[in-house]
Amino acid sequence: MNVLLIEPDRLLADTYRLALEAVGHSVRMCAGAQSAIFCADEVTPDVVLLELQLVGHSGIEFLYEFRSYPEWQNIPVVIHSHVPAGELAGSWQVFKKHLGVSSYHYKPLTSLQKLIHVVQELSPIETALEQPISSNQV
Amino acid sequence: MARASMPALSEQLLLSVAEQLKLPLLQIARQAELAQLTNNPNLHEIESSADTALRLIDSYVLGMRLALEGQESLMLEPVSVSSVLYDTGQQLEALAKFYGVKLELQVAGKFGPVMAHRKGLQAALVSLGASLIEAMPALESPQLRLQLATHRCRYGIVAGLYSDTETLTAEALRQGRKLQGVSRQPLVNVAHTGAAGIFVADAILHAMRLKLQASRHHRLYGIGAVLQPNNQLALI
After folding, report:
1. pLDDT-derived band of residue A127, with 50, 70 and 90 as boundaries?
2. Which residue of A45, A48, A62, B64 has the smallest Cβ count within 10 Å?
3. Would an 8 Å CB–CB cutoff place B27 in contact with chain A?
4. Cβ pair A54:B138 closer than 8 A
């Protein structure tokens, strides 16, 4: 799977990249929202791992921009952030319904194993197995 | 309904430091987990993350101690700004390497000694530098270059850290001071974290009755400590 990892801390980004590559994923790293849009334009990701706390444009701004392009509207986005869930409680419905966020994971409490598992679950093969194509779909 | 009062500045700083410490601890935890997964431990990175955490705690404690002891008991001594910058560079070298930041020392010119609390001044510059180094890759600047430099300004001698980051402005610093401990990203256009290192440096310098301020050096933007030259020492 092509994973777009949006992580501003270089050491953490390298650690996540190595862990995901170790299980066979291809990872593109971006430290900011603007470069992440360019990265997605170059290689369409299968899944986006997003930190909300970025320099300049925030992760939420990235999400709005990302979802404004029709071809990226169905790409799963996983929030993996330093921001605790409690601070997002009021916004969660917006994230889920309007911005299509697949899941949220609080970074300090999310192990690499867990993160790998989250990405694996979103792989097209698994999704296809879970949701078989119906007869009326072309 | 009565509103809870705003936390005092020292409490805001403590909150900011506690929040910031999560980052190196998280780095250590994930690097250790990666080592187990891949059977390839990167002990140097783990060591660097642990050093970052220890340095932040150390600087915070020093700042608090200086503030509690008061100005009267400060052990001032003649300090060469160039040598402080050199030692700061030495302390930051390993961290800069891990973050892919090129650290340069520019101490051309004669500035003479200043009367200062050497340990405090150095701790402030190291704390400031570590915070800027961590923030730089997130700025996505084409050049990851940080310059330790000194120059004269109308208020005295500035010893600071400079880069091509245009967002390192006096206004950003002023806003950051207001938002410190209240916002997750008080310097939203400079750092993706709470930038506690910058505010710890600010607290140390404040305890020494010095100032941290945004300044320009050649064509670079940066933050530095303004030091008063000692005319008597200059005569020696």
Report:
1. very low
2. B64
3. yes
4. yes
pLDDT higher than 50, residue A133: no
DSSP-derived secondary structure letter, B5: P
Q: For residues A30 and B140, give the distance between their C-alpha atoms in angstroms, rounded to a whole number.
A: 9
B37/A11 Cβ within 8 A: no
| Chain A residues near residue B100 by CB distance under 8 angstroms | 10
Q: In chain A, which residues have their Cβ closer than 8 Å to the Cβ of B189?
A: 55-56
Distances (CA, A) of A52 to A31, A84, B78, B126: 11, 11, 46, 28
**Environment class of B119 (CB within 10 Å of its CB; exposed 0-12, middle 13-18, buried 19+):** middle
pLDDT tens digits along B116-171:
899 999 999 999 999 999 999 998 877 899 999 998 887 788 999 999 888 889 99
Query: Distance between CA B198 and CA B233 in Å, rounded?
Result: 30
**Which residue, among B26, B132, B133, B183, would best test binding to A if mutated, counting the most A CBs under 10 Å from its CB?**
B26
Q: Are B31 and B25 in contact (CB under 8 A)?
A: no
ipTM of the complex: 0.87
Residues 18-37 of chain A with CB under 8 A from chain B are 18-19, 22, 31-32, 34-35
pLDDT of residue A111: 96
Class of residue B19 by CB neighbours under 10 A (exposed 0-12, middle 13-18, buried 19+): middle
pLDDT of residue B234: 58
- Residue A124 pLDDT > 70, yes or no? no
Per-residue b/e over A108-125, b at no fewer than 16 CB within 10 Å? eebebeebbebbbebbee
User: What is the distance in angstroms between the Cα of A20 and the nearest Cα belonging to chain B?
Assistant: 10
A53 and B CB contact within 8 Å: yes
Summary count for chain B: helices (H), strands (E): 7, 7
pLDDT band at B67 (very low <50, low <70, confident <90, very high): confident
**Could you tell me how many residues make up chain A?**
138
